[in-house]
């Protein structure tokens, strides 16, 4: 199915989003975004819109009614991943000791990076029409991590000389690692090594 010129498609998408959806339409939209995140994380640029529609249990026409272009779907998926990552910081902080909350959030960050890598090509296209997308979302992710790090420093579960920006820099290195089949497992091991280093000065090494 041919897609419409991007300017027209964006106008239609904005008009559609301005109107409240029926409950069944909202469920379809939410399901499409959920499935798209999984497909893009698994298959990257090879993830097709037809596969997303099929796995979501809807027709391709339904997908295009909600997301007139691939880039529109990509942006919605990306924003959803950022919102979920940021919301997880508060949820984990309420349920776990501060160092455990930080570690679990960083493991979730690996999943976020996996999806972002899958979206990379399309996100570059999105940036041509939304130049503030990355700066806006980066600020939110940085703040979520800072809150977790500062809480763990305050109660002594990680070393006191830790700066959240350094932790984020270390985590961001995961994004540039080679995209191999074992990338996700290796990234999770790196998070555990990073947490051992953060705990070391506080006497909280996780060695078995």
From TrEMBL:
Signal peptide: none annotated. Keywords: DNA-binding, Transcription, Transcription regulation. Residues 48-67 bind DNA. Gene3D superfamilies: Tetracycline Repressor, domain 2. Transmembrane segments: none annotated. One of its GO terms (molecular function) is DNA-binding transcription factor activity. This is TetR family transcriptional regulator. It comes from Rhizobium loti.
